[in-house]
């Protein structure tokens, strides 16, 4: 077992490769986050104590310094993204100490699936993130002169999404919970302190003193944020650190326990079994047997992967948006291609500012009402939101009252806004303009009602009304 170095080019803080994998050795990366996206076939990832089945259509984060291996029952084709945390540290101060997740948590050595989340909010986050990964792949395999610039834009969006939506505190919290930036920074400062001092004795008093807060306040804050007590988290970190010594040295269990900060070897056994489900030497033996077997993987030529990626888009990405065939997949695929073209066109011939894009949300091409159930074309909206975040476009959400009536408009607007808040967060939506048009006195009253709903949900919303003839 060894550290696998990832070489980054100056001003290019990411690497993308596509591999055929049946069995990949145990390894880890330092100051790197790895993202695995199976394009064909499923993979099983062993990361520290977790065993995760990652299916086609999903992805998985391998966190900084996480010991992991990858295998597949048949040779899976996997896109592998490496992100340079040293580079992005200037934008996100504690990114090296963030733990990224896209599924619910597991204890012990039971295999779980990477899509075991339980609500549409997380599904929306994951769909957008996966489609950004796919967008990167379409660019790097296109041999387009603009590919590098387009890829750089998408990678920054990916990292921002990781921090804002897949930091495990954010991803696992309930939808109505709020974690302030101050709380997040405090949490990550403490995690950094643990990472640097895990081998020493660390008490609640030490942390409280460092943070200038009372011990009682800190205990409640930590429990509310992390779902584990501080001592549980401290011993969790010590247990993970011990795996490096266990698998890469011949140290005795007693020595490993001491070097990792456990006051007694019996506590080390207790915590190791809690997380890994076995004794330390049993885990070591299992890993050695894995490393002694034959490996089977190869890196594939990116330029030959265009058809694989196109097939993935048609079979995985587009059907996700079809919503039980409400939207035809052929129409969605054509729109995907069109949006990518417009994005490239903007890079070639940028318009003078200010620049805007209009999303006619209630137009029949973007909205359908089937027996009281509302369907929005989220593919178009997702792509435009991604487009606007790196192209300095202002999004204008057009709400056309001619498509609404007095009886259903409130339910429709509530559904749309709630979904947007879940998918994109308030901080993104506050940048949008809501443009509401009306044609007569009746539709004017509907327009005012829509505006009131928007203001109730988005306090700093930008709303404009206009009359159309």
UniProtKB/TrEMBL annotation:
<dbReference type="GO" id="GO:0003700">
    <property type="term" value="F:DNA-binding transcription factor activity"/>
</dbReference>
<dbReference type="InterPro" id="IPR014710">
    <property type="entry name" value="RmlC-like_jellyroll"/>
</dbReference>
<protein>
    <submittedName>
        <fullName>AraC-type DNA-binding protein</fullName>
    </submittedName>
</protein>
<dbReference type="InterPro" id="IPR018060">
    <property type="entry name" value="HTH_AraC"/>
</dbReference>
<keyword id="KW-0238">DNA-binding</keyword>
<dbReference type="Pfam" id="PF12833">
    <property type="entry name" value="HTH_18"/>
</dbReference>
<keyword id="KW-0805">Transcription regulation</keyword>
<keyword id="KW-0804">Transcription</keyword>
<dbReference type="InterPro" id="IPR011051">
    <property type="entry name" value="RmlC_Cupin_sf"/>
</dbReference>
<dbReference type="GO" id="GO:0043565">
    <property type="term" value="F:sequence-specific DNA binding"/>
</dbReference>
<feature type="domain" description="HTH araC/xylS-type">
    <location>
        <begin position="188"/>
        <end position="286"/>
    </location>
</feature>
<dbReference type="InterPro" id="IPR009057">
    <property type="entry name" value="Homeodomain-like_sf"/>
</dbReference>
